[in-house]
Amino acid sequence: MSDSHDARARQNAARLSGTVRVVGAGLLGASIGHALRAKGVDVVLADASPSQLRLAIDYGAGRAAREDDAPRLIVVAVPPDVTADVIEAELAAHPDAVVTDVASVKLEPFDELRRRGIDLTRYIGSHPLAGRERGGAISARADLFIGRPWVVCRDEQTRPADLALVEALALDVGALLLEMTPQEHDRAVALTSHVPQVVASLLAGRLAEADEGSLRLAGQGVRDTTRIAASAPELWVQILGANAAPVVELLDALAGARREVAPALRAPAAPGARRAVADAIRQGNEGVERLPGKHGQNRRFETMVVMVDDTPGQLGRLFGELGELGVNVEDLRLEHSPGAQFGLAEISVAPASLRGAIEGLEERGWRIAGNTND
Amino acid sequence: MSDSHDARARQNAARLSGTVRVVGAGLLGASIGHALRAKGVDVVLADASPSQLRLAIDYGAGRAAREDDAPRLIVVAVPPDVTADVIEAELAAHPDAVVTDVASVKLEPFDELRRRGIDLTRYIGSHPLAGRERGGAISARADLFIGRPWVVCRDEQTRPADLALVEALALDVGALLLEMTPQEHDRAVALTSHVPQVVASLLAGRLAEADEGSLRLAGQGVRDTTRIAASAPELWVQILGANAAPVVELLDALAGARREVAPALRAPAAPGARRAVADAIRQGNEGVERLPGKHGQNRRFETMVVMVDDTPGQLGRLFGELGELGVNVEDLRLEHSPGAQFGLAEISVAPASLRGAIEGLEERGWRIAGNTND
């Protein structure tokens, strides 16, 4: 494990040089600090909160600012509400630096700054699609961005040398570069993140109103559908507020789709009703099929379900034996039966591995509760 | 593993005796057959499709019917569309038998039979909450119902001895008995299953219309929210049609919640707008919190994120070492970074185990990418 990571680290010498200034020492800012420092880049940290700043520095995410700092690249990693203000201040305070930000909405800060008449030649918005359930400098990790998409929003004014700096930042922290316009980006995150959040929250809101008995019938489906509804209200108020137009447009499209199917749901015996419902479900099938799978490909795996006792070491034995069988686990989902002392492990493997995995496990005494290739 | 299962099997001697007739040899019917036969119960299978019936018998789910069969219990496990017809036919053909069904909607078949003037004293509806992504007799498993809720809908006419038969069926296949009225049941599954299905399908429908580039920003959130949108249209047309009233009522409640929050999303700077959005997200938080956790309790676990190379045996080593550390894995989610050759394993453990698990894994060279108790 560590060998291959070391080898990868040696291949990836830092593309950035000089000093990078990171404004905002929360989860994203401090994680960028850790990742760049691991590459030997000089990182200066700033934060409106002295205690947050102190914490991030204590944890090794960077150093405090000095009078003579001359950063070439500034990364603004502050809450959405204050992103535009901080970008403006940093552009003014560092007239030779390129400024980027990591906010999850890209058009609003850009438009706001343009409305203020700011020269945005040296500003290049970006958005790393990374995060964790907990925020703050103490949750920061050098590997937060590894393998994650990092969107960079250039425009016609962007100078190639400036763009290269922002791209070097994304590559240095291990992210996968994607180029989009701010409009493309904001519509994409409305679709893949913001609207799913609203939908999950509203659906989970109905669970809040339900009687206790109903909830005992909840299975994995509703759990998955509402998982992200556990997200923090404070952050989402800002995100949704900053990306209101694309979010509302998509919610309207959803409401339209609902209105198309509602009469059919209301009167299932009416002519054409079954077809309308089937069409809606089938279109959902198509949408799910389009989501990129593992390694960015639409690879399909076979799944087998193994019964696992709920005691320490059982999963270890299972995965150890899969390793002995030469079977690579591509994906895994554990499902627990309410009241039962064991779980079901749904294990995805390459189609070519399925038969051997099942036979090998059964020989070793495991109970296979099913597979997708029966 | 096998020791404890054997012990459990010995404790659970069959409660049913005599012959059980199962009508419909698909996934549920054939699984009931397998589970009952494993307890030594005589199972007669019937199916409108001779090839499906032959297959289920070949796989050992039961035997063919004979002239002199005198079943005490009949289980109707046919598609929702024909459930009422088959219940009626079985009640008529077997005047001494108790008839139950396993359809996922309970009020509609009951009302339909009452409209036809059928005496329903010997009919007791039930619904095992179990299923698999693939259907058919070949996907059937004796352990499909173990630890799953099995709802039984008695009414004031139900005779105790008849109820005992249906309860014995549920207990013999290893399910957890729940008693509800048909109305309670149908509202509960509308909330926990049918409406999440509609919402996931409609949301995933927007993905079907999206451009390819947008979908590259899709993360685990939208994947979870839309996972069940991959379900089969044919089945869901029947289920939604049979439970139209509670589904439409909940969809209306959802639309109402959306209309409350929509103006706030549309005009995020308006007075009260932020609070309206925050309230909707917070109510979603509350709903998710109410979903029962593992073992039917609302236990909370701590989660740590471990980096795992994408090669055979790595997960085995990880779980083996967790077993050595005495740490029981309560839940697990594997996340793959697009383009990266490793994954992140989110592992849930009892709060008391977290610190020791992290320290032990780090001593053994694992990279911990975060935990919920920082």
TrEMBL record, chains A, B:
Name under which the protein is recorded: Prephenate dehydrogenase
Taxonomic lineage: Bacteria, Bacillati, Actinomycetota, Actinomycetes, Micrococcales
Pathway assigned to this chain's UniProt record: Amino-acid biosynthesis
Keyword list, A-Z: Amino-acid biosynthesis, Aromatic amino acid biosynthesis, Oxidoreductase
Superkingdom field: Bacteria
NCBIfam families found in the cross-reference section: PRK06545.2-3, PRK06545.2-4
Any one Gene Ontology molecular-function term assigned to this protein's record: prephenate dehydrogenase (NAD+) activity
Every Prephenate/arogenate dehydrogenase domain range: 18-299
Pfam families, A to Z: PDH_C, PDH_N
Keyword Amino-acid biosynthesis found: yes
Provenance organism: Microbacterium commune
Entry annotated with the keyword Electron transport: no
Family per similarity comment: Belongs to the prephenate/arogenate dehydrogenase family.
Enzyme Commission number(s): 1.3.1.12
